[in-house]
Specification:
- 0% of the residues lie in helices and 52% in strands.
- It has strands at residues 2-6, 9-12, 17-24, 33-38, 45-54, 57-62, 70-75, 80-85, 94-100, 115-116, 120-125.
- The strands form 2 sheets. Strands 2, 4, 5, 6, 9, 10 and 11 form a 7-stranded mixed sheet that branches. Strands 1-3-8-7 form a 4-stranded antiparallel sheet, with no helix packed on it.
Protein backbone atom coordinates (compact mmCIF):
# COMPACT_ATOMS: atom_id res chain seq x y z
CA UNK A 1 0.00 0.00 0.00
CA UNK A 2 1.56 3.26 -1.02
CA UNK A 3 0.99 6.80 -2.21
CA UNK A 4 3.05 8.29 -5.02
CA UNK A 5 3.06 12.08 -5.41
CA UNK A 6 4.17 13.81 -8.58
CA UNK A 7 3.89 17.08 -10.47
CA UNK A 8 6.19 19.34 -8.52
CA UNK A 9 8.64 21.67 -10.19
CA UNK A 10 9.86 25.21 -10.59
CA UNK A 11 7.34 27.90 -11.46
CA UNK A 12 7.30 31.68 -11.43
CA UNK A 13 5.16 33.61 -9.01
CA UNK A 14 1.63 33.86 -10.34
CA UNK A 15 1.93 30.58 -12.19
CA UNK A 16 0.14 27.27 -11.76
CA UNK A 17 0.98 23.65 -11.06
CA UNK A 18 -1.04 20.48 -10.66
CA UNK A 19 0.09 17.86 -8.19
CA UNK A 20 -1.16 14.31 -8.39
CA UNK A 21 -1.12 11.48 -5.89
CA UNK A 22 -1.63 7.93 -7.07
CA UNK A 23 -2.68 5.36 -4.51
CA UNK A 24 -1.97 1.70 -4.95
CA UNK A 25 -2.41 -1.46 -2.97
CA UNK A 26 -6.00 -0.83 -1.93
CA UNK A 27 -8.89 1.43 -2.73
CA UNK A 28 -9.03 4.77 -0.97
CA UNK A 29 -12.54 5.69 -2.08
CA UNK A 30 -13.79 5.61 1.52
CA UNK A 31 -10.76 7.35 3.00
CA UNK A 32 -10.20 11.03 3.55
CA UNK A 33 -7.18 12.28 1.64
CA UNK A 34 -5.08 15.32 2.29
CA UNK A 35 -2.19 17.44 1.12
CA UNK A 36 0.40 18.88 3.47
CA UNK A 37 3.57 20.84 2.86
CA UNK A 38 6.83 21.44 4.64
CA UNK A 39 9.12 24.34 3.94
CA UNK A 40 12.79 24.28 5.00
CA UNK A 41 13.11 24.83 8.72
CA UNK A 42 9.38 24.74 9.28
CA UNK A 43 6.90 22.19 10.54
CA UNK A 44 4.67 20.25 8.23
CA UNK A 45 1.45 22.17 7.68
CA UNK A 46 -2.00 21.36 6.40
CA UNK A 47 -2.91 22.49 2.89
CA UNK A 48 -6.16 20.78 1.87
CA UNK A 49 -8.27 17.70 2.49
CA UNK A 50 -11.18 15.95 0.84
CA UNK A 51 -13.68 13.34 1.95
CA UNK A 52 -16.59 11.68 0.31
CA UNK A 53 -20.07 12.42 1.57
CA UNK A 54 -21.91 10.00 -0.66
CA UNK A 55 -22.41 9.52 -4.34
CA UNK A 56 -20.61 12.35 -6.09
CA UNK A 57 -20.73 14.79 -3.18
CA UNK A 58 -17.43 15.66 -1.53
CA UNK A 59 -16.51 17.82 1.42
CA UNK A 60 -13.29 19.79 1.24
CA UNK A 61 -11.24 21.88 3.62
CA UNK A 62 -8.47 24.35 2.88
CA UNK A 63 -5.89 26.21 4.89
CA UNK A 64 -6.63 29.93 4.92
CA UNK A 65 -3.35 30.61 3.16
CA UNK A 66 -4.40 28.67 0.05
CA UNK A 67 -8.17 29.01 -0.03
CA UNK A 68 -9.29 30.49 -3.32
CA UNK A 69 -6.01 29.60 -5.03
CA UNK A 70 -5.75 25.83 -4.58
CA UNK A 71 -8.31 23.18 -5.46
CA UNK A 72 -8.28 19.60 -4.20
CA UNK A 73 -10.07 16.90 -6.15
CA UNK A 74 -10.16 13.14 -6.37
CA UNK A 75 -10.94 10.44 -8.88
CA UNK A 76 -12.02 7.35 -7.02
CA UNK A 77 -12.11 5.27 -10.18
CA UNK A 78 -8.43 6.04 -10.75
CA UNK A 79 -7.57 6.03 -7.04
CA UNK A 80 -5.97 9.45 -7.32
CA UNK A 81 -6.17 12.79 -5.56
CA UNK A 82 -4.96 16.03 -7.11
CA UNK A 83 -4.07 19.52 -5.98
CA UNK A 84 -4.40 22.27 -8.56
CA UNK A 85 -2.44 25.31 -7.48
CA UNK A 86 -2.79 28.71 -9.08
CA UNK A 87 -1.60 32.24 -8.32
CA UNK A 88 1.42 30.67 -6.70
CA UNK A 89 3.53 32.75 -4.35
CA UNK A 90 7.15 32.33 -3.25
CA UNK A 91 5.86 31.39 0.21
CA UNK A 92 4.18 28.35 -1.33
CA UNK A 93 7.65 26.87 -1.87
CA UNK A 94 7.82 23.56 0.00
CA UNK A 95 7.84 19.83 -0.31
CA UNK A 96 4.23 18.76 -0.78
CA UNK A 97 3.01 15.46 0.63
CA UNK A 98 -0.19 13.58 0.01
CA UNK A 99 -1.63 11.52 2.82
CA UNK A 100 -4.52 9.17 3.51
CA UNK A 101 -6.57 8.33 6.54
CA UNK A 102 -8.14 4.98 7.27
CA UNK A 103 -11.38 6.79 8.11
CA UNK A 104 -13.45 9.14 6.02
CA UNK A 105 -13.24 12.29 8.08
CA UNK A 106 -11.58 15.61 7.35
CA UNK A 107 -8.56 16.44 9.47
CA UNK A 108 -5.88 19.12 9.52
CA UNK A 109 -3.68 17.16 11.91
CA UNK A 110 -0.76 15.24 10.34
CA UNK A 111 -0.72 12.51 12.99
CA UNK A 112 -4.28 11.57 12.12
CA UNK A 113 -3.13 10.44 8.68
CA UNK A 114 -1.95 6.85 8.45
CA UNK A 115 -0.22 6.70 5.09
CA UNK A 116 2.10 9.24 3.45
CA UNK A 117 3.58 9.68 0.03
CA UNK A 118 7.22 10.54 -0.52
CA UNK A 119 6.71 14.24 -1.28
CA UNK A 120 7.22 16.38 -4.34
CA UNK A 121 9.11 19.67 -4.36
CA UNK A 122 7.40 22.87 -5.46
CA UNK A 123 9.60 25.92 -5.93
CA UNK A 124 8.04 29.29 -6.70
CA UNK A 125 10.45 31.96 -7.87
CA UNK A 126 9.79 35.66 -7.39
Amino acid sequence: VQLQASGGGLVQAGGSLRLSCAASGRTFSNSAMGWFRQAPGKEREFVAAIRRSGGTIYYVDYADSVRGRFTISRDNAMNTVSLTMSSLKPEDTAVYYCAARTVDGLSRIPREYDLWGQGTLVTVSS
